[in-house]
Amino acid sequence: MPGYSKVRWYAWAEIVFVIALAGTDLLGKLITTCEDRDYGDATRKSLRLIFDTQLDALRLELAAMLDMRILVQVTYELEGNRLEEMLTYDRIESLRELGRSIKAKADGVLPNVDAVLRMQMQLKKNVEVEKHFHGHGTCVGKLTRTKKIDSTLYPGKQVDAWGVQFSDGYEEYEEEELRTGKDGPAPSGQDGKPVLVVRNLAARNSIYEALDPGFDYLEARITGTVVGDSTCDPQYSLVTMYEVLRMVRAFDPTFARHHVDAAFVNGMSAITPLHGLGLLTGLKQELPLYLAAAAGAPAFNKASVDDYTHDLLEWWRSNGNLFSTWALAARIVFAFAPNSASCERVFALLKNLFGEQQMSALADYVQAALMLNYNKRIVG
């Protein structure tokens, strides 16, 4: 199973992603094979029932899982012991923006869901069609009637086509053209192609409404407010941590040169160790030196946590001696971990490496085996 790991939390999601990418045709063959070989029992029967009676709904749910894969990807990106804390705020903000778009049921937010809906949609008179023209806007039309035409997609064949009445004229499209269109600003080569309008379909709205509470809960945890039906008990509140994650971005020189000033440094009192050690005054005094050096910092690859961590640490190794208070504060901040995944991974590795037959293993052997596995080092 691609991506599966014994020390990751999302094994169930990984299975769903594999099924979704493989397609329901292959899933049907798998169910039949299991039946022929008498594999499983209750699970197989339940899956057969869903496959035979709710296939359209299953396809929609699998499409929604693929569209929400970013939730798992962000979790994986931020679960290590690198400099994830420097990227967490921006990653979470991107998820919040996604949540706002889902709440608004915006076009193109769930492209896989929309694609499945177009394939399932019943074509009939007055169904709306849109064409987007870059720089000119969107033209709206409606299906009128079907007729036989010479196929442009498959030369030499005659196919059924739908007539579409636009405000500025009449055009004819093959069913495949209508069902494979794209929402929003069209990519290269797609400009002016027809798109079946699915935004008002009940099935689409139900998917969006099912996803909405998850993003409401995220908002409740990081804002400390009631969002929709979601609340957050004080012991689970992330308000203080989220403010810390917002402020630690000051130690990224590419952020600092545009956003950090004396007022921003005052706000860094939210980072308890810096405030407790009395470093804020020194940070403000050295701020001009830091910003001067930050002006020449190269762009860091934030898409890769590994690359970002390496390049940011290299920058501080090369420049930190110019502003000692900022360098000390950076060492403190870079030691933060925005999650408990790294220590939980240690526990999981220990469980996998040492069972009941290794209860008498010497401590130095346990330590060496754990460190080699944690750091993915190979002996020999």
- What sequence of helices (H) and strands (E) makes up the elements? HHHHHHHEEEEHEHHHHHHHHHH
- The averaged pLDDT comes out at 89
| Regions with little confidence, pLDDT below 50 for 5+ residues | none
| Distance separating the two termini | 28 Å
Q: What is the total number of structural domains? A: 4
Total strand count, please?
A: 5
Specify Rg, calculated over alpha carbons.
27 Å
* Proportion of residues in extended strands: 5-15%
Report the principal-axis shape. Answer: globular
Helix content range: 40-55%
Strand order in space, largest sheet: 4-3-2-1-5
**Number of distinct helices:** 18
> What structural class is derived from the secondary structure elements?
alpha+beta
Largest sheet: 5 strands, antiparallel
Characterization of this structure:
The chain is built from 18 helices and five strands. The model has no long low-confidence stretch (mean pLDDT 89). It has a five-stranded antiparallel sheet. Helix 6 (88-103) packs antiparallel against helix 9 (202-223). It is of the alpha+beta class and 380 residues long. The chain is globular. The protein has four domains: 80-121 and 199-235, no CATH class; 122-197, Thrombin, subunit H, CATH 2.40.10; 239-333, no CATH class; 341-374, no CATH class. Strand 1 (128-133) and strand 2 form a beta hairpin.
Secondary structure elements and their pairing?
Blueprint: H1 11-22, H2 24-36, H3 42-53, H4 55-67, H5 69-77, H6 88-103, H7 111-120, E1 128-133, E2 137-150, E3 158-166, E4 169-174, H8 175-179, E5 194-196, H9 202-223, H10 239-247, H11 253-259, H12 262-267, H13 272-276, H14 280-294, H15 305-319, H16 324-333, H17 341-353, H18 363-374
Antiparallel strand pairs: 1-2, 1-5, 2-3, 3-4
